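Example record

One chain of 154 residues, shown exactly as stored in the release files.
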Amino acid sequence: MVLADATGSWIGTNGFRLMPADPLAESPATLTVATAAGGHLTTVSYSWAHPTDGPQDGLLVIAAGDEPGSLAAWWGDSWHQQPTAMTLAGTTGRVPEVELSAEYGGGWGWRITLDAADPTTVRLRMENVVPADQADPDTPAGPYPVMVADLRRA
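Predicted structure tokens for this chain:
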């Protein structure tokens, strides 16, 4: 099972920003890691607050991929990704880390990383990836963090 040592409830803070030059707006955050389907799926449910739109929540479902070490995931979020879930692919990276990514909207990318290497903390990081042909001085090409949640066991 992916993130086996991280199962349970976590609390902490989340930093959110829309654009790379925006400051991260912090809010309280929660996260729960659980197993489903006889341990074949890992669910990561989380909550956070948008600075103007208020409380939000999301769900990430992670499964083993077709190749050893590969992952398949489905992600939905009440603010970022709705009403249709995004399908992501990834790897387990350095254990216990999960790295997922997908493309959307004309070459833009989305990355989600869960890092539970420290048994006392979990970090959930989401990055938007700006394609080179969409970059400008205020929005450089490449990834930038949109959400960074740092959590500890509840």
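Notes: Strands lie at 8-16, 25-36, 41-50, 54-64, 70-77, 86-91, 97-104, 108-115, 121-130, 142-153.
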